[in-house]
Automatic annotation (TrEMBL):
Keywords: Amino-acid transport, Signal, Transport. GO terms for biological process: amino acid transport. This is ABC transporter substrate-binding protein. Residues 23-355 form the Leucine-binding protein domain. Coiled coil: none annotated. Residues 1-21 form the signal peptide.
């Protein structure tokens, strides 16, 4: 029995009956490689996920994709073909999640991605996300920029699906807000220097810079900017919501602002926030196991994925291990409403496989080496 079982029972109405069948949830996570700071808390959060739902036991299988899209594709196929997965989870980054999603669409297996992945229309019916849309998170940053007088913004992002989606998302939003994008630079997750990009950013004289990266690599541009004397505001995305970002960035990331899921600062949330109760319970249990400063948005995304999966299992009918059951789970996921979890309230539909609203994001600022809740009001 996991430490949060009582909370999970209340949340998804698990039955008190003994488990009658076994449902397999198989995850491909980036436990090693450049995105390890994302994948490790996701893997660790498995211990806090429901062990049964709707009278059926849940079996979890975890495979490491090493932040490699090819390996993620191989893992997803192993999940479906060898483990007979009913639901897929993962992966930790947009590129690896795209690989898992491709297998999900091909095999008719629902997947809950932990990264904001964009897929083809033919695959989309099988793909759900426990991470917030980039547009939702970007809106919080742009609101802060407007309130603080930012009119010129520099952008540096990953040279992959994550960075490009952020650039595509924010460009029209910035234009609508009257903020000029004065420089656009890219870097790889594995880069060890971004000196060239930083020099171009500084030369464009921005009021602020947005770094569209995730995990520890996202600290690299911030360090470079401060070393070159940039004194403006540095914004990050929710991909940087890990204490490893703060550890690696050190003094250079002090003052940086980013949008995060509520769980990151659960004890600091207003008492009226719907995620405060369940968020504090998860936060407290996780800290008890892994220590102060260990909670990240990425563990929260895994926790929410587990809650969504369990809610679907409780609602779906059929025999685990069959195509018909996987379809029933897909249909159940698409019909979930008012699922309160650590990163907001989920309302999924045929038109929205994210299911978030503004309750799913808050702003934080790095202050004295920790994330501090930053009210927009």
């Amino acid at each position: 029995m996991n430490r949060l079982q009582t909370m999970s029972v209340a949340l998804i109405a698990l039955t008190p009956l003994a488990a009658q069948a076994e449902v397999t949830i198989c995850a491909s996570l980036s436990v090693t490689g450049p995105a390890a700071s994302l994948g490790i808390p996701e893997q660790q959060t498995l211990a806090f996920l429901p062990e049964e739902a709707g009278g059926q036991a849940i079996r979890y299988v975890v495979l490491d994709d090493a932040t490699d899209p090819t390996k993620a594709n191989t893992n997803a196929r192993k999940c479906v073909e060898d483990e007979k997965a009913d639901i897929l989870l993962g992966s930790s980054t947009a590129p690896t999640s795209a690989s898992v999603a491709a297998v999900a669409g091909e095999t008719g297996t629902p997947v809950i991605a932990l990264a904001p992945v964009t897929v083809d229309a033919a695959v989309e019916p099988w793909v759900y996300r426990s991470v917030q849309k980039n547009a939702l998170m970007a809106s919080a940053l742009i609101e802060h920029m407007q309130k603080t007088g930012v009119t010129r913004l520099g952008f540096v992002g990953f040279a992959d699906a994550y960075g490009e989606d952020w650039l595509k998302t924010v460009t029209p939003m910035l234009e609508a807000a009257g903020i000029k994008l004065v420089a656009v630079e890219r870097f790889a997750r594995t880069d060890t220097s971004v000196t060239g990009q930083v020099l171009k950013l500084v030369a464009s004289a921005p009021d602020a810079v947005l770094v569209a990266g995730s995990g520890t690599p996202s600290a690299l541009p911030a360090v470079g900017l401060r070393e070159r004397g940039f004194a403006g505001q540095i914004y990050q995305t929710h991909g940087s919501a890990t204490t490893e970002y703060i550890r690696v960035g050190g003094p250079s990331v002090e003052g940086s602002i980013l949008p995060v899921g509520p769980v990151v600062v659960a004890p600091q949330l207003p008492v009226s926030h719907p995620s405060r109760g369940i968020g504090v319970e998860y936060y407290t249990a996780y800290v008890a196991q892994y220590g102060e400063g260990s909670v990240s948005a990425f563990g929260g995304m895994m926790f929410d994925a587990g809650q969504l999966a369990a809610a679907a299992i409780a609602a779906a009918e059929g025999t685990p291990g069959t195509p018909e059951y996987r379809m029933a789970l897909r249909d159940a996921l698409e019909g979930l409403t008012d699922v309160v979890s650590v990163n907001g309230v989920y309302n999924l539909s045929a038109d929205d496989h994210y299911g978030h609203d503004q309750r799913s994001r808050v702003l934080v600022q790095v202050t004295d080496g920790a994330f501090k809740y930053l009210a927009l009001d």
